[in-house]
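To the team - acetoacetyl-coenzyme A complex, inputs and output below.
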Amino acid sequence: MTGSALRVGIHDLAFATAHQVLDLGALAEHNGVDANKYYIGIGQTEMSVPAADEDIVTMGAQAAAQILERHGADGIRTLLFATESGIDQSKSAGVFVHSLLGMGENCRVVELKQACYSATAALQFALGIVARDPREKVLVIASDVARYALDSSGEPTQGAAAVAFLVTADPALVEIEPVTGLYTDDIADFWRPNYLSTALVDGKFSLAAYLRSLEGAWSEYRDRGGVGFDQIDRFCYHQPFTKMAVKAHDRLVTIAGAGLDREARRAQLDASLEMNRRTGNSYTASIYVGLLSLLEHDDADLAGRRIGFFSYGSGSVSEFFTGVVQPGYRAVLRVDADARALDDRAPIGFPRYRRLHQDVDAVAGEDYATAVETPGPFRFAGVSEHVRRYERTTHA
Ligand code: CAA
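Output:
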């Protein structure tokens, strides 16, 4: 089979988030602003907050476990872990997940970083591996905890979530098409120096940079033979907050000269916003949380429909590409489990949120054990001799 004739893409896609939730109304009250600034102005109602023993590894493992439960680990020879909120400067977070899930040793495991873009890099690398040998299966995990300083303007755009997806030949969910448009620009819109656990951001500049990158990536996508706007049925954007995707889609409609009214524009987008509105920003995972949200919440039958994706990672690197939803895709989804993952989170009050936020920064270089809190299947148990320890819980 030649590479060009081969259909490759996302075969399965699973979701996990942290097990606690803060209503953004509590943050609005603390900040003395109208809650509608967050609920409507930035388009976020809640944010997931990791418990003391949850992090990118526990969320990533919980998402990936659902993939392995259904497909087994046989044939998965590559695990790509995409994250902005890495937990070690050297070792891939994926190696911890590989171990927690009992995957075989004949596997390459690596972590990828470029702010919120790296899961898309992982997808493209995975497609290449499968195109070269269609027997290959690649497990991609994207997992992030979005953190800004307390009392900063970025605080309402925090959150936490993970996705895991399996990239194979003859995919059951979304075939990814080959044409892409790329745009890279060396800017300081959002970044996190090695000595900080919270991101720095130039808020308004980051919004403008995102939109400029969309124009650049779309332009190259079209120049390289990508389909016209009118041949794309739905759109899925990186969602640092859902209003950003609305702004982006409005911009794309304008630059493509599509002339759609508000209702038509929102019909192409709205279903993709449902889940992110409740998780908050999940950096690398957010665009694929958006894809899952679209597939689960759009009432139309999307089989055979084309989705346009815009992936943006500050700093900045971005990509526009497309995929076609596969017949029978609904049978692949875990709609009830994903709804439960959001609905069953434990609501926390503002003081506990602040304490958890501060605790992440409190320990450096000392041994410690975390409180047993998560109801999830995996937990971060603490650090001993500078090594992070993870374990399965009794809920596993
Ligand atoms: N009711 C309804 N809407 C209200 C309102 C009210 N009572 N009060 C204010 N609003 C609206 C405002 O009109 C505004 O809407 P528009 O942008 O559509 O005009 C919106 O609420 C936000 O108000 P402000 O711009 O005044 O808010 P802010 O200055 O406090 O900051 C922010 C907003 C810049 C997004 C800030 O939260 C931030 O810096 N976030 C982090 C940066 C970020 O997410 N950047 C996105 C691009 S970079 C990227 O994508 C990578 C990544 O993941 C970080």
